[in-house]
Amino acid sequence: MSVVSTSVSTRLPAAADAGAQEPDRPTALDSARVLVVGQGYVGLPLAVRAAWVGHRVIGLDTDARRTGLLACGRSPVEDITADQLAPLLRDGSYRPTSSPDEAAGFDVAVIAVPTPLRDGVPDLSYVIAAGRTVGRYLREGALVVLESTSYPGTTRDVLGPVLEEVSGLKMGTDFALGFSPERIDPGNRVWTLQTTPKLVSGIDEASLERTAAFYGRLVERVVPVGRCEEAELAKLLENTFRAVNIALVNELAEVARDTGLDLRAALAAAETKPFGFMRFDPGPGLGGHCLPIDPVYLSCWAAQARGEGSRLIDLAARINAARPAYVVSRVEQHLVSTGRPLDGARVLLLGLAYKAGSGDLRESPAVEVGRLLADRGARVSAADPLVDPAAAASALVGLRLVFATDDELAAADAVVLLTDHAAVFDYERVAACSRFVLDCRGRLADRLTAAAVEQL
């Protein structure tokens, strides 16, 4: 099957266009009743986009607080704004709810729930629970699509049987079943749900065609993969590729420092090669809903398939997981060199989110750095205006939240730049006012000659 493109190009009002006039919405063609299970970073943008192109969408989430905020027009996800929600809530094309009974009567159901690790192994309990909810209301002719990341075989061998058991229907005969992995990058204004090519797959040819047709109205380009298993593997491969290469540069950063070399200068030089090289930069560790988790799914699947996991993936995971502790050791080395123990020292963290431009705290290495510092007796404060204060307080108990003022910078025995938000921190002031800065993101690379700045 060839790549499918859609002619529906009308975009949602962007976050930056908060006061702009609403663009005309496309006329609904073949409007369907769509159920999206999970209203987080993946499910909410999908639900809003589906409503925007003319579907009638139910956004189901077990978190009543989240759906209550959405019903009031307040988005818990920065990629979706109040201006984007308002017209959809007004005309009823999008209805958030925490009541499973609202799921009845759907034509298409998309499952976009977390697939975390529990005790270091894949946890599919959310997918199974969502499958049971969907199965209760599943009817003949409906399409069910899984977007949650998991190992190959999850759609066909885990979700499918759950749907069959609860509904009494047969997948591939009575209902279609597909997999389309999420590729959401929170805070990215260029590669959004609509503009990022969408992989689609199905348990059979008819399911693939149904899945491709559904997403063809939501995104600019869909890419049929064929079987669900290859699409599931592709999603894991995308993020494992990144995790392994980040582990490489994280390890080389330590080797380069020990030998007196500047890895970022070497990376800039290597990047001039127009083929065969892709740049990755060292940092304080992996964060977010994908990079720390997806490689583990891939290694666990390999272990199930052949009795042995991936040695390369497992080694990369250990290297990346050790980075927060390495950050703390570097802070302590500096303090000891000045006669100041870490216990009782004031340490200011700049940035708590796992990536620049986002307030997302999921698996953030900055939070782990703060926890390790606090465990060692440091008095930890943090500045990150993009992060919800309640979420920050919950992620790191006892954390003091501040603004990165000249006084706060000067009062800290050490400042650790962990998330280099653009237009949030005044990096010239950071370098000028701080007694010591450990730059974990290369933002102050032009100031490394200053005694007060070190690069991770």
Topology:
Blueprint: E1 4-5, E2 33-37, H1 43-52, E3 56-60, H2 64-71, H3 82-91, E4 94-97, E5 108-111, E6 117-118, E7 121-122, H4 125-137, E8 143-146, H5 154-167, E9 176-179, E10 198-202, H6 205-216, E11 221-227, H7 228-258, H8 263-270, H9 294-306, H10 311-321, H11 323-337, E12 346-350, H12 365-375, E13 379-383, H13 389-395, E14 400-401, H14 406-411, E15 414-417, H15 427-433, E16 437-439, E17 453-455
Parallel strand pairs: 2-3, 2-5, 3-4, 5-8, 8-9, 10-11, 12-13, 12-15, 13-14, 15-16, 16-17
Antiparallel strand pairs: 1-11, 6-7, 9-10
Helix pairs in contact: 4-5, 7-9, 7-10, 9-10, 11-12
Protein architecture, described:
The protein is built from 15 helices and 17 strands. It has helices spanning 43-52, 64-71, 82-91, 125-137, 154-167, 205-216, 228-258, 263-270, 294-306, 311-321, 323-337, 365-375, 389-395, 406-411, 427-433, and strands at 4-5, 33-37, 56-60, 94-97, 108-111, 117-118, 121-122, 143-146, 176-179, 198-202, 221-227, 346-350, 379-383, 400-401, 414-417, 437-439, 453-455. By secondary structure, the protein is an alpha/beta fold. Mean pLDDT is 91; it is low at 1-10 and 15-22. The N and C termini lie far apart (47 Å). The strands form three sheets. The protein has a nine-stranded mixed beta sheet, sandwiched between helices. Helix 12 (365-375) links the parallel strand 12 and strand 13 (379-383). Helix 7 packs across helix 10, helix 9 packs antiparallel against helix 10 and helix 11 (323-337) crosses helix 12 (365-375).
